[in-house]
Design a protein that fits this description.
The structure is a single chain. By secondary structure, the chain is of the alpha/beta class. Helix content is 19%, strand content 34%. The protein is built from three helices and six strands; from the N terminus they run βββαββαβα. It has a three-stranded mixed β-sheet. The longest helix is centred in the last third of the chain and has 9 residues, at 117-125. It is elongated and about 60 Å long. The N and C termini lie far apart (60 Å). The mean pLDDT is 89.
């Protein structure tokens, strides 16, 4: 049985890779009651590796299985609905806008793509034989 405390280490889940990571923040129960576990998940974010990639001007393409992912309302898949296959690719923001012919917000770190998109991109940059 895990002991509870009135302090907890904050964790988030990376939007890109789905891994849990520590934020470095402490959470405090204002009533000072032993109500919290050692780690508390507070939402989504970017792990240090993917935050650096985003800061360097890259957009992560996260491959998701549409059959295993949750139903997307109006074509938008929420992070908690995405069934990640584990395949990733990173494109510079300017390249992303050219390849997909859509603008992308500077703060958007990733997009979910269907299987085959990453392979298609790889074939576009593969050296000719």
């Amino acid at each position: 049985m895990e002991d509870k405390s009135y302090v907890s280490l904050e964790q988030r889940v990376c939007l890109v890779c789905g891994a849990s990571f520590d934020t470095g923040s402490l959470l405090l129960d204002k009533r000072l009651r032993a109500s919290m576990k050692r780690h508390t998940m507070t939402g989504w974010g970017l792990c240090p590796e993917h935050q650096k990639m985003s800061d360097d001007g890259f957009v992560a393409l996260v491959e998701c299985d549409p059959e295993r992912s949750g139903a997307a309302a109006a074509g938008r898949l929420k992070p908690e609905q995405a069934y990640r296959t584990g395949r990733l690719a990173h494109l510079r923001r300017a390249v992303f806008a050219q390849v997909f012919n859509v603008p992308i917000d500077d703060k958007q770190a990733c997009v979910f793509v269907e299987p085959g998109v990453i392979d298609q991109l790889a074939s576009m940059v593969a050296p000719a034989h």
